[in-house]
Amino acid sequence: MNMLTRKLISALSIFSLFFLAGGRTLRAQDESQPPSENKPKPAGSAFPTPLVNSGIQETEPTNGLTPDLTPLTGVQTPTLGAPPVLHSYWEPGIQWSGSLQSNSYDQTANSSWLMNNYIIGNLSLLQAWNGSQLAVNYSGGGFLSTDSTQGNGFYHQLALSLTIQRKHWLVQVLDQFSYLPQSAFGFGGGSSLGLPGTGSPSGPVIPGMGSSYVPNQSIFASVGPRYSNAASLQVTYTTSPRGSITLSGSYGVLNFIDSGNINNDITTGTIGYNYTFTRQDTIGVFYRFSAFHFSGQPTAYGDHSANLAYSRKLTGRLALQLYGGPDFTTSRVSTNGNNVTHGINTGASISYGFENGGLSAAYSHGISGGSGVLTGSSGDLLNFSANHKLGRIWTGQLNMGYAHNTPIANVPQAISQTYNTWTAGGGVSRDLGRNANFSIAYNATVPDYGVSGCTGPGCGSNTTFQYVTINFQWHTRPFVLP
Length: 482
Hints:
With about 475 residues, the protein is mainly beta. It has one domain (about 5-480): Porin (Beta Barrel), CATH 2.40.160. The protein has one helix and 19 strands. The chain has one helix at about 5-30; strands at about 90-100, 115-130, 130-145, 155-165, 170-180, 225-240, 245-255, 265-275, 280-295, 300-315, 320-330, 340-355, 355-370, 375-390, 395-405, 420-430, 435-450, 465-475, 480. The protein has an 18-stranded antiparallel β-barrel. Strand 10 (about 300-315) and strand 11 (about 320-330) form a beta hairpin.
């Protein structure tokens, strides 16, 4: 049994334990109900609930949340649900984040603690019409750094979702954008610095796009400011009360401001079929094709994967998704006489909510663009986070991430080695009244690449970058829109 198989079995075992725990809890709740309420569950439907109706949710929320509408074979990861849409609103805010960093990215300089001060304006907006909804979370501003190699710069992050629902159609336009001074992998860990929007508890919930559709940034050897954008158009059509077809087209780009990094883009198309056999359970099958290109490089490749998928959603309690299948990669350029490689494409994600807290985890294995260091990579990506209320006003948070990247076998590389990146941390936060929040967090990133063959500024062997982030965020009350 190889290392990848053991990793995959371990990840799926963890997710299965969470799933079984959730199932036992729910069965216990069902058994405690009066006999008259133990009725057979109604069959599921392709769209479990209407989106909006004149800005008012038509169905009663569960656990204070409305159901998640993301299709199983779509580009977004499932969530526990969102606050009910009572009215349209916009909500501005401001934010200051002071991030102490242990080392400069320029390894030739004397290592010492440095300071980055972020001054940010925030905006959250939710506009609901009859059968459609626009949700926006945006944060933008700049930072001042005491690191002369990094200098001062800009900061922008955006998450946008436009959803239109008709009787048999669900149309979604999605976009995720970031302009950051460093890798997005682990950025702002334990604080809201890494998330767009005001951070209001009633703010719009915009499910993130899966790692297969967003350019990879998990190799820390690529340094300097960069912008990343992933946009998608997705259409779901109900073919029967339980079945639906999902089509999507996505385009992602990762470009760097400084020379020495490899700009890349990814174009992805998917087609899938979803079958909802209960209100909570859905199975599906989908085919995905991705084309990777690299600025100024002759290398390009296409990736084909066919996958089986399963999801279970219990609003406010559980959002589980599993998928996997064979994967074939074709390369325009080959150095070993073979321009086709094969492997597996697999992933799993889970969000679990419990009283006064929750946790989420995600794992994926597949092909990516190489993070600005490689012209294509095959790797594993694992993320975990958990939060819990610590008394009446404080909340604690933990986070962890791991990325393993290797060059694609049939693509020529300037270097041939394994890239392992670890990130871990945690923090505490508290509300300051209804409209403000304070937090302090610690996060560490350990790139383990070795020195041989690695030429980027972030290639030091086992160099630990430590961050202590103090964050203050304030927003107004929501301003109701007509």
